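Morning F.,

Quick status update on the modeling queue. The single chain you submitted on Monday has been processed. Sequence for confirmation:
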Amino acid sequence: MSGSRCFVGTLGRMSWLRALKVTAQAGLAVERRRLEPLVAARGALGLALVVGAALALFGPGVAASSAFGAFQAAIATFQRSWRPRPTLALASGASLAVSTFLGYVTGAGAHPALFLALLVLWTFLAGLAWAAGPTVGIIASSNVAIMLVTVTLPTSVAGAAGHAAMIAVGGLVQAALVVLLPVRRWGAQRDALADALAAEADYARRLREDPTASFDPVPLMTARNAAAVTPRQARRRPAELHGARGLAERIRPVLASLADPAVGASPEGPERDRVRELLAAAGSVLDAAAHAIRHGEPVDIPPGALAALRTPDTGAILSGPPHRAAARLAALLDDVVETAEPRTETTAEARSRPTLLRLVPVAVARMRAELRHDSPILRHAVRVSTVTAVGYVLGSALPLGHGYWAPMASVMVMRPDFSQTYARSVARFGGTLVGVALATGIVQSTHPDMYFSAGLSVLCAFGMYLLMRTGYAVSQVCVAAYVVFLLGMGGSEWTQTVPERVILTLMGGVLAMLAYAVYPAWETPRLRSRLADWLVADGRYAASVVAHYADPAGSACPDVRQALLDTREARIAWQEAVARATHEPVRHRGLSRAAADDTGHALAQFGRVAMLMEAHLPERGAPPVAAAATLAEALRRATERGAKAVRERKVPDWDDVRTTIATWQPPSDPLLRKGASLLLTALDDLANALTADTPPHP
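Structure tokens below.
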């Protein structure tokens, strides 16, 4: 497992001025990303069909409503979700239609107090929706923001129902286009699996130069998430997307055990030279499999790589654990090549993902679980609902018109963490300035009529879809221009929309930033808790591995597999927490920069040693090592007590583990004894790293 060194750059005390500068730069940054023009064109086509039909049949008011529905539904299909894109479009259109209708019925115009109450409730629930995942949170927040606009368009309950229906139709059209005009089916899943194999290929090459190189498991976890499918998806998934991920999971510890001198070949000499050849060949095979899966093509493996893996000289040069690892690596790579070949048949076995309807009770349960005072999600829900209410009241009171733009800006920029909220606030204001300036220049020079304005709005939407992933500021340029042209389609002059939009967008961003400063949910004080969670997960993983030396069950050990997944999730949560804490303007009340760096590295080493031991689990029926059971229990107890000490800002001790190893009779498996010693060393490194950050305890 890799350390967290690359995630800790400036953790520690950061002034507010410095934090604002860093987050502003992040918000205005433009990234080079692979563009998807066909997907963007499909979303713009759906918008054009809906707007054109609504203009011809119902006029500009209904066209604006349907445009928002189709616009938002297309955005939903761009979210980083493994669910079918038509499902996301339908869910977005239907939920926005319901929000719009309820907003109008509660009296957006006639009964502002009742509408304000609904707005607070709806925004609070949208804030809690982040507990169900970022895709749900983004769609829910966008629904609140767009609802603030669409409720101003109807003039009666019947009209509100008609507008809601057209919004739903916009989502339906986008869903239908995804089905009728598919662009690279299963492309996201192919990319996730190919990225995992490519990461393993890079890992194999790095091990040639650094036998203890680290590995970031994020690509493997992403591929695991992508592999979960609904029953409908399971019947249509290409066969080559099914088995390679599991093989990649099994290859990684084999690569590490083959390269590491502690359990593998000697540091120099003929054994090391052969190991380097095998690692280079493994990298070539994995790269070829990744390319084949990404593009749906046959696997083309360099002949030299196959020759290096299949040469009989390996058995004459390597012996013991290195030879077993080499043989297992060759067999696994053969399986990868066979699995990666494009085939027409599918397999019935698959990781299951609940359907959208079955996800509802799961999402509700997660939202209820966040109703506790220390939950960052709950704090976000309180913040965003309060800011939305204040922004709506202030925007309505000011003599500017279109007062909904202030709360709309707040809802769209606010996120559960500090960095994203501040970065998006700056990016939205900067993007709005540029976007309205460009749109104003076009309007003044061309004086577009209704249909020309509609065409310009569709063109801006295409730009937004195309550039969405290059940066929030870039996308906001297109969104700002889109709204100007869309409102101009209904006859609104630019002088009636642009100045107040700029002022109210600035107000919404400032309110969002002030709210986080007044009622924050800092990640920095929670770092020790994240570290403790990782320690517990690592301890259970190592204990599960060691226990199987006392009760050999072969390589198929579901408890070890689950413990490995748990420790990966805990490690990723730690890395994300450190990344968020890096730019927070608070003093560390848990871990300094150096301690976070060193403790993360120590736990990564602990997990890595456990992984090496897992790669050499004894086969079923092998002689058991009775002392391993005692060590497994000692590891489990010690890491749980150590996690408690970490949370309480104490230095953990590992006396139980040390005593168990010291009183051991020499076990029959020398690899187990070596691994136990390395585990204890990693735990000692963790304790030493925490010593400097822990106050004296009487």
